Amino acid sequence: MLVVPLPPSDAAGDGGGSASSSRRLAIVSECGRQGSRAQQQVTYLDPLRDLMFTVDHEKQECTGAVERRQSVNVSAEVDGIDEKLSKPFKIALEVELDRYITERYGERSGGSSSSSSGAAASAVHVFKGKEVGGSVGLNILISSRQARPRGLWAGAWSSNWRVSFKPGQAEPVKLAGMIEFTTHYSEDGNVQFKRTAKPRAAIQETMDPGRFALAMVAAIRGLEDKFHEATEVHCETFGEESLKSLRRVLPLSKERFDWRPLRHALVRDMKAIGKEGGS
């Protein structure tokens, strides 16, 4: 996933259900793609503002954004039924995710300074459930990137969450996620680190959109915190465990090296005596 700033536009307002989003950032993802990936400029959907924006993948920047036009075919009508049922849950999730992103990433969301830059955004896409008009399908995306060229490092964090349920169902909702963290450090070398996880959780609330959104974001927060803590532990023990396992216990001769200098001096003297005796 890629976070890109949307170009300013008087016609394309910040529609949707989120509280406010002066950052005007959008997430480039597969679930929002509307065109072929073979093209240099591909169109994507921004579900927060109901915009169609075009991305130049070679330059990794947004080249334009327009309001989405509603189609009048049968497929669009079916999609409209699912979107209408999912809309209250989608809007509530957008509000809570906006708060979560602001709290977790603070001023770095879309901000930059002379020494570092970063961006963070979220999106909620609606997908077709098992039954048309009977189930809610939501795909939640969170993406963040940070870079400090002067420090010779850059990193990216992304998480993808998926739920499908019937409003008011008795059984808990299964939340399935995918978290990915990558970083690149280039001082005196070229070090890249990548770690992924596929966490799971259960959401009890399925009737009230507000309580559902709170439970969803709380579950996502807990799973992301757990992944972050596990990554820190992995980095702290990486040198003692992973790197140490790459070292040979014995050299190619299968004999341990004797570090006692006196023994090596004795061998050298014995070889010298042997050469003198044979001459």
UniProtKB/TrEMBL annotation:
Pfam families: F-actin_cap_A (PF01267). GO terms for biological process: actin cytoskeleton organization; barbed-end actin filament capping. Residues 1-20 are annotated as: Disordered. This is F-actin-capping protein subunit alpha. Belongs to the F-actin-capping protein alpha subunit family. InterPro entries: CapZ_alpha, CapZ_alpha/beta, CapZ_alpha/beta_2. F-actin-capping proteins bind in a Ca(2+)-independent manner to the fast growing ends of actin filaments (barbed end) thereby blocking the exchange of subunits at these ends. Unlike other capping proteins (such as gelsolin and severin), these proteins do not sever actin filaments. One of its GO terms (molecular function) is actin filament binding. Keywords: Actin capping, Actin-binding. The keyword Transcription does not apply. GO terms for cellular component: cortical cytoskeleton; F-actin capping protein complex. It comes from Polarella glacialis (Dinoflagellate). Heterodimer of an alpha and a beta subunit. SUPFAM superfamilies: Subunits of heterodimeric actin filament capping protein Capz.
